[in-house]
Amino acid sequence: MPFEFTAAEKQQIDALISRYPQKRAALIPVLHLAQARTGLITAEVVHAAAGVLGLTAAQVYEVVSFYSMFRKAPVGRRHVQICTNIACMLRGAEDLVAAATRRCGVDVGETTADGEFTIEEVECLAACGTAPVVQVNEDYHENLTVESFERLLAKN
Amino acid sequence: MELFATKNFGKPEALTIAGYKALGGFQGLDKALAMPQQAVIDEVKKASLRGRGGAGFPAGVKWGFLPKDNPKPRYLAVNADEGEPGTFKDRLLMEGDPFGFLEGTVISSYALNVHHAYVYVRGEFFKARRIVQDAVDALYKEGLLGKSVCGSGYELDVTVHPGAGAYICGEETALLESLEGKRGEPRIKPPFPAVVGAFGCPTIINNVETLAYVPWILAKGADWFAGYGIAGEGGPKLFCMSGDVKRPGLYELHSGANLRELIYEHCGGIVGDKKLLAVIPGGASSAPLTVDEIDVGMDFETLKKKGTMLGSAATMVIAEGRCVVKILARTLKFFHHESCGQCTPCREGTGWLHRLMERLEHGGEPDVIRKDMGLLFGICDNMVGNTICVLADAAVMPTKGFVNKFRGVFEAHMDGRGCPLHRDAQGHP
């Protein structure tokens, strides 16, 4: 899929670059900007980001591959990220994983055939005092029970 | 209990400049801008404020490491890449009282003669980042940032920078690499960031909680702050309480608060009134305390003497009936996942330990388990001190701690049939 930054995005990128003494420092914000529109970082996005920042594609790839938030494959419309670290585990995160995979009919790491859900286990989301926590796209859902989590998944 | 850094939590007006001011904000900044820069540094030093990111290094001393004769620009990097399992205070500080730590950022930047501060906010914190960005925009609009901060002639820019999902970027040199648009791989020290930091320039890195207390030091005085905590560790302190307690959450007490009181008074005791089994006092990187060890002050020096650490005061409470092997296996899964892969002892060691604990918990070839358990402490000793950063050490501390303190539980797992808690009366998995 071809990818080019829009004129408005290019303006945003110029504003980002102006905040740093070195152009390369804008790379992570630029990749976030691209992914917000495309949903994942494709080879075309890598080349476009390299182009606007004067980097090689390798310099962009090595960053894309390092950070877990830069997606290499598409996710569902609702990206369900269940924290299973210690505090959430103690508060029932395993039951949430079981509930999500049961309801969606897919395993952890998979996307439903209709493209609605991707179920993922993630590391500590820094909401241990309100565990268990699930992040759906950008939003946190805290103090979940299996019942409230199932209601959340059932909502359109 | 009087509150300080958390006193504006739950008050929507704290998200506006006028509201924050009406709640008593900016008194520290007003005082600081009327003082010589060195006097502000001296005040923070005298307050014995210890860095709240985990290492507990005295903030004022760290500030003193900036070279006096270096003509390059200086930077302040605010470490808001909170990711240690068990800690959630910085996210709440940013979401609940963004002007609090930003006031501390402006004061600290002024003291250090920094003209650009970068707030490195963890990637997953979309809400916190929006709130902090809105607060920064408002500060520019009202003349508290920009060409002349509050008309003082002192110039300061603040930029909110997103992370992208990597625990290691909370390590200060990895944070700098990431800020520069690179992989978050820690740097070899020296040179220390105070000499060669962001963009090759002298840089100070401070945690959100550390900066949130700076305005209080200026407003109420270094003597008050130093006296509020214990000797050498001043001030109020945030404790992140989680796990098997009745009232988990964030508690603002004082440095050196008693752990038993935290669990049984503030948090209301253990869920279901069960007995306590263990406490992880300072995040996943810290060794556990057993039920006999909780009459202890929650401060950096006391916990160090107990063979563990305060870290970010991320206290995870574990009730009887839990399997410590399972908890350690989950801890090691985390470190295995988050090792940046730069150093062989860490990359391979965290994986080895993780796989071993999974085999103990879920069952495996008994010969392999016995052999690996025999090698366990050797693996640990080959990891500690042999890597660029302390992530390997952070994986070893809980490993050695749990195995040493709960040896019988680990031995009961060694027959290769998985966790004894998941076996039937005949001992079958």
CATH topology of the largest domain in chain B: Rossmann fold
Radius of gyration of chain B: 23 Å
Strand order of the largest sheet of chain B: 6-5-11-8-9
Gross morphology of chain B: globular
Radius of gyration of chain A: 18 Å
Give the % helix of chain A: 40-55%
- Count of helix runs of chain A: 7
Count of folded domains of chain B:
3
Report on this structure:
The complex is a heterodimer of chains A (156) and B (429). Chain A is of the alpha+beta class and 156 residues long. Chain A has 7 helices and 4 strands. The longest helix of chain A is centred in the N-terminal third of the chain and has 12 residues, at 27-38. Chain A is elongated, with a radius of gyration of 18 Å. With 429 residues, chain B is an alpha/beta fold. Chain B has helices spanning 17-22, 27-33, 37-46, 59-63, 89-96, 98-112, 126-141, 172-179, 208-220, 222-228, 259-266, 300-305, 324-338, 344-362, 366-383, 391-405, 407-412; strands spanning 75-80, 116-121, 157-162, 203-207, 236-243, 249-254, 257-258, 276-280, 289-290, 297-298, 314-319. At the A-B interface, helix 2, helix 4 and helix 5 of A face strand 3, strand 5, strand 11 and helix 13 of B.
Indicate the topology.
The complex is a heterodimer of chains A (156) and B (429).
Chain A lengths: L6 H11 L9 H12 L4 H11 L3 H10 L11 E6 L2 H5 L2 H12 L12 E6 L11 E3 L2 E3 L4 H9 L2
Parallel strand pairs in A: 1-2
Antiparallel strand pairs in A: 1-3, 3-4
Chain B lengths: L16 H6 L4 H7 L3 H10 L12 H5 L11 E6 L8 H8 L1 H15 L3 E6 L4 H16 L15 E6 L9 H8 L23 E5 H13 L1 H7 L7 E8 L5 E6 L2 E2 H8 L9 E5 L8 E2 L6 E2 L1 H6 L8 E6 L4 H15 L5 H19 L3 H18 L7 H15 L1 H6 L17
Helix pairs in contact in B: 2-6, 2-9, 3-6, 5-6, 5-7, 6-9, 9-10, 13-14, 13-16, 14-15, 14-16, 15-16
